[in-house]
Amino acid sequence: TNVATKAGSQANVEYAIKLPGKSDEKTVWLPIDSKFPLESYQALLNGFEEGNILEIDAAQKQLLKTVESFAKDISSKYIDPPHTTDFAIMFLPVEGLFAEVLRHPDVFERLQRTYRITITGPTTLSALLNSLHMGFRTLAVQKRSSEVWKVLAEVKTEFAKYSEQLALVHKQLSTASGSLEKLQTTRTSAMEKKLRGVEILGLDVDKEVAVALIEPVIGEPL
Asked: What global pTM score does this model have?
């Protein structure tokens, strides 16, 4: 807000959009000045209300004359390439006022051609700024397209490596799974066989102990 866009000038424009220049250190300003010719516009509204054709015609001429004087003022005070864009924006804060100027396309074109002024209303200003924003984003992508391509190439390489490693891990897991299955079937069987031997040995020991204890009691060999 209140930016001195012209070098050596003390005139401050109400608003200015900071745009990227050709180098990172440089700033280019887009001047935006709000104008509201209240007296001329009110006279025009009164003419429409009363249905007075003469008053409407006179008010329209005065309104357009005032708007053109605003355009000349903005152009001389705030446009200063390369510190600024080669055009500025006149913002008319009422849609009806903006629509009235649009009804005279010759005036609209003359302001652009002679003074490098673009007129906007409440809705068209946001649309214009969004268009500029998208334009600069596109330029930024084009400027760094080689970097983007390089990043994509690196991602592609890393993805290929990831796929190779994933396949290797899958193979190792399959091998490990097979080894575990083999271990379960062979070594488990061997351990069960040994354990059965222990059970049989335990039965044999118990039988010998029983014979040793019972024979003296019954007096007969078992």
From this structure: 0.61
